[in-house]
């Protein structure tokens, strides 16, 4: 978990691997500490979630056919925009 936390591309992680979380939202030090701890817990919770790997898929034949058909239609529309020749 520590490796995943350090692997994050976050500006709050120094080159030495120290995580720096500041909080100046409240006037009291206790509330600022609680806020910083809350944000640390959110970061740890974000890192502990395992992301699901995407399984690559291929486009279906129907979708390929529809895509090529619309490209052909657009080409025909554009070809009629040419200069008028006598």
Write a brief caption for the model:
It contains three helices and no strands. With 86 residues, the chain is mostly helical.
Descriptive overview:
The protein has a domain at 2-48. It is 52% helix and 0% strand. It is mostly helical and 86 residues long. The N and C termini lie far apart (74 Å). The chain is elongated. It contains 3 helices and no strands. The protein has helices at residues 2-7, 29-48, 61-79. 0% of the residues are buried.
How are the SSEs ordered, and which strands pair?
Layout: H1 2-7, H2 29-48, H3 61-79
Index terms:
86 residues; mainly alpha; 3 helices
Number of helices: 3
Q: What is the share of helical residues? A: 40-55%
Poorly predicted regions are none
Which structural class matches the secondary elements? mainly alpha
Multimeric organization: single chain
Order of helices and strands: HHH
Q: What share of the residues does DSSP label as strand, in percent?
A: under 5%
Number of strands: 0
Global shape: elongated
> How would you characterize the largest beta sheet?
none
Radius of gyration, in angstroms, nearest whole number: 27 Å
Instruction: Give the terminus-to-terminus CA distance.
Output: 74 Å
* pLDDT averaged over residues: 87
């Amino acid at each position: 978990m520590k490796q995943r936390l350090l692997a994050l591309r976050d500006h709050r992680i120094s080159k030495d691997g120290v995580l720096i979380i500041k909080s100046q939202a409240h006037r009291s030090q206790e509330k600022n500490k609680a806020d910083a701890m809350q944000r640390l817990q959110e970061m740890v919770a974000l890192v502990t979630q395992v992301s699901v790997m995407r399984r690559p898929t291929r486009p279906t034949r129907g979708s390929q056919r529809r895509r090529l058909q619309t490209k052909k239609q657009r080409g025909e529309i554009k070809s009629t925009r040419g200069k008028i020749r006598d």
